[in-house]
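TEACHING EXERCISE
Course module: macromolecular assemblies
Task: Read the component lines below, then compare them to the predicted structure of the full complex.
Student: A.B.
Group: 4
Components provided:
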Amino acid sequence: MFPLASLHAEDGYDLWLRHAPLEGEALARLAALDGAIYAPTAHDPTVAIAVSELRTGMDRLLGQPSAAPLVILDVRVPGQGPRRAFSLDCDGSAMRSHGAFRIAGTGDGIRITAAEPIGCLYAVYAVLRELGLGRDPAMLALDETPAMPLRMLNHWDNPDGHVERGYAGRSIFDWWHLPEKLDPRLIDYARANASVGINAVVVNNVNARAFMLEPRYIAKLKRLADAWRPYGIRVFLSARFSAPRDIGGLATADPLDPVVEGWWRDKADEIYASIPDFGGFLVKANSEGQPGPQDYGRSHADGANMLAAALGDRGTVIWRAFVYKAEDDTDRTMQAYAEFAPLDGQFASNVILQVKNGPLDFQPREPFHPLFGAMPKTKVMLEAQITREYLGQASGIAYLAPLWDEVLSADTGRGGTIAQTIAPVGMAGVANTGSDRNWTGTHFDAANWYAFGRLAWNPALTGEQIAREWTAQTFTRAEAPLEAIVQMMLGSRETVVKYTAPLGLAHLMGTGHHYGPAPWVCDLERPDWNPCYYHRADASGIGFDRTTTGSNALGQYAPSVAEQWADPASTDPRYLLWFHHLPWEHRIASGQTLWDELVTTYDQGVLETEARAQGWATLAPHIDPERHAAVAADLTIQRTEARWWRNASLSFWQSLNGLPLPAGAAPIPESLQAYQARSFPEAPGQ
Amino acid sequence: MFPLASLHAEDGYDLWLRHAPLEGEALARLAALDGAIYAPTAHDPTVAIAVSELRTGMDRLLGQPSAAPLVILDVRVPGQGPRRAFSLDCDGSAMRSHGAFRIAGTGDGIRITAAEPIGCLYAVYAVLRELGLGRDPAMLALDETPAMPLRMLNHWDNPDGHVERGYAGRSIFDWWHLPEKLDPRLIDYARANASVGINAVVVNNVNARAFMLEPRYIAKLKRLADAWRPYGIRVFLSARFSAPRDIGGLATADPLDPVVEGWWRDKADEIYASIPDFGGFLVKANSEGQPGPQDYGRSHADGANMLAAALGDRGTVIWRAFVYKAEDDTDRTMQAYAEFAPLDGQFASNVILQVKNGPLDFQPREPFHPLFGAMPKTKVMLEAQITREYLGQASGIAYLAPLWDEVLSADTGRGGTIAQTIAPVGMAGVANTGSDRNWTGTHFDAANWYAFGRLAWNPALTGEQIAREWTAQTFTRAEAPLEAIVQMMLGSRETVVKYTAPLGLAHLMGTGHHYGPAPWVCDLERPDWNPCYYHRADASGIGFDRTTTGSNALGQYAPSVAEQWADPASTDPRYLLWFHHLPWEHRIASGQTLWDELVTTYDQGVLETEARAQGWATLAPHIDPERHAAVAADLTIQRTEARWWRNASLSFWQSLNGLPLPAGAAPIPESLQAYQARSFPEAPGQ
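Instructor-supplied answer key:
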């Protein structure tokens, strides 16, 4: 047989599901399994997929179709048939449900048990992952239950194919040709999601178009829902709150108007008639120009509860807490808490409040959002951002598991970590997928999709564990290069923090497209859109005073938390300028002045991008040429951008403080005016 | 070896360069060739590509690497070494140049001769095509010279990735990550182009952004030019005429201002310093809001000649004749001729005038443009549209070679056919490529890319020959399904004419996106944007009188041509309503009334889409499942759209003429108001 595959280089399309052939002892162990699969409920579509994935994955791990073709048997008669086999029991009535599974390797093969078919599918992906990592089949012993019920992707994809804050091409959803034409890519998308346990997808942007609630779109959505159902994925829609006016012909969208209530009830009925397991609505209301209940003098709870009543016990309303107002001159980071905390206890039982990890907006680093733990009578879920709007977009590497680790393990001071707070509910990630062949723009951004799913399944996993799994499945199992890649990944987000937003700074990026540095911007219509609003730098100092002498955003946190951040001396340097305005000459823990520390930190960031590019170059013998070249280009771009951020930022800070660069620091090659003049009208994702 | 390829279905990415394994006698004949390739100038990058393509292509046609690995030898010593081999002589000094080649199959193997390396590359693609069609290697005998020097694609791709009138995803150009990152896809794009002889590419939209002339874009363009040079492809840029003002800091873009002249000369020098073989500029000036020399009271010739002087003998200015004015109430189809014909003789020798095939705008059918043949002292090239802006976009099948055949073979009455008129210059096609995996949105649209290149190489090829070649290389060589597919293709453009614009009607599509029927639109700001401007239908009749009793557009044609279209009785029914306004009850050649004929024609169009969908369904055993399903979906969509066009159009004509449908015609299922209410704000390509 001719290896036609050799004509297509590694292009990243297979993601972490490459299942590259094993070698040596691991291969020998796997080859000793014979090919039978026992799957008593194989007529279930999900079990059929599990069997197919297992068979294909095994073939690929073995590097060839198994000598004896795989046999699928409905029933295994003890003592008869192949001995070293797979058996799938997918309706283990004694098992926990919701995707839980057990995997036990024995001398008799590998036994998978689950309460439901989806548990068997999850188990098959887990088996392939473990075997792919070289584990001994006989020693497999997993007993897993997902940590939270809702493991969700939010797509900021518009129906015309544009992806807001997307850096990987167009939307993967070709709405225009649905329902007739379903891109096979959407099946591979479901496979990738299911393989890491993602079980819910909001298919459209939170800045929603109302026409996606019209019948022609319900037909399209039904085709997706039908295709994804066997993979355990429920579809959700972002709903525009003004839809009853926009497309319903009503004069109002007032949530307390019975006609409006009826319109939404009818709309929900219409959707459920096509999609019986429709998940529900995600709503961005009264935020950044979106319509909402406050347009009618009603509260967020009024709006959410009206929609929740329309869905009934069939579905869920996910209401975003990301709100801030033009007319509100409160510290922007305080507005969500101020608006929502008083509503605790007022939301219906099928309403979930979706809260971003930090109180501003997905910055490279923020302290955790004070709403976590502050609404004990409300279902609260975490919203993370997988797409790197503020972390370099599609340049270089920024592995985000450490960021999410930081958030999930944060102690709210109100009875537990954020991981514990959201465990009964779930977490959502703003997707980073697109039409690019490798799905995510850069190859390493697939690690963020993977890590998001793995952490939602089990927040106790470390970023390092996940990086190791992903790298072995994606690039190489060879010890030395694997370890080198994992180390490159682990520090990568911190590198971006260093060269873009050191010491707790935030929101310094270019206007609109959010690309590149623009700390000098201070003339935008709304104060809280301006970088200068956040850094508050002048001749004497820099930083945002959020203590009692300033905005007192600290007051929104539990006292034990607020206390650690109240004094610059006890504040973690990573949050220093988030909470404090300090003189440039202020001495910080390292013994340096704040100014010298800033410069040092920017320079470290730049050096780290250089080291990463050099390190990657040495890996050429271990990585296929196409992916190696692509990542090398990504890292070259990132190195250039890091220098630009460092130079432009320092040039601006110097224009305010007049301080010289510390001895030894590289000079700034261009003028501040030159950096300010750079313009990128075509920057992606806006 | 494990066939990993089996995990990736046929997805169309390989286009007509699949080189699927031969079978039977054809395979045996090919296998009898031994593997040596003699290429005395193998150090030339183009020859190296030719050798590599030949080797890979042969391996694929053989279905396996040849038993004896291919050997590349610089010099063949007669009487020694393998006998049945390939030899490439790529600097045959006695040969014609410009890509010409000879291929001779002998008992001694296959001998390729060319004057230049690019001729050898073209020859290799021709050899692979011929072998792929099953031809006997010993009988190959080709002696080819391209029919015209410029075989060009015009990309209407914007720097932000949006493609105007693009229906295949985003732009293939990821400008944002150039020059660091070159998508390997752009090499495959060059291969596909070279394989059909395309040798020039305008990389950006004629509605151009000036910043693409800035240094950061010249660096990006240089990377493309370097990558494509070995494939014989020269890059061109669409230039915005006002660039000296937009990005040059000048107060004017007056082409006669010496400072403006100097700015463009410096810009050209800057480009040529990076790209020594830069092709030149394509300019859309004083048309549809674009700036141009008329803004300063200068003529098109003044503008074009100024740019031509800046390029000097290094490059070419391609000036578009597609102009029409808001303030001009002349029949829009007459304005280009009126404006340009008087300028004949005034253009510099390195200016080419680019004229669309018809005088309106790429309609499903138009009579040829009267400028062809009318400017004997001017270099005139043809502009065709490969992307199907007005022919169904990315639905169904519309094979365009018959449309281009129709144009190329039209006799201008001024000394030859259009093919003869443009032979000294060239032809351009508006590209239909995008980021979709199969490049062109639908699989069958790749045939239009292919056919455009083949016709530019040799306009004497028939649409049927080209369809047969393309189908054999793309889908199947098996006689019966191949023939069925070719027949489906051949009538497909005529089908679209029938259900959208029968009997010479034109410009009846939806506003803006140009999707779907909207003959009722009559309220747009400019008269000549309205469908009603073109059909002129009312209670008594329909059609545009362009005879002496009307606009006399006929007067722009040679008398021999005008004569045949002057009388409805002698006018080809395909152009009837283009040139004549006729009563609904007018009896036409078929003996039917015009109204009955219209209805019949719409109905035939619908029937043909149904027949095509059914015909394709029967081909399932012969086509891989992924591509079969995709085309089936395309044809389903087209069938739906054909009914919609038929019903909406007839409903509107009936609202004017009050006539009943002829006996037996299917009733119209919805009201005119319902058709008029359909809205598609997210339609692609606008």
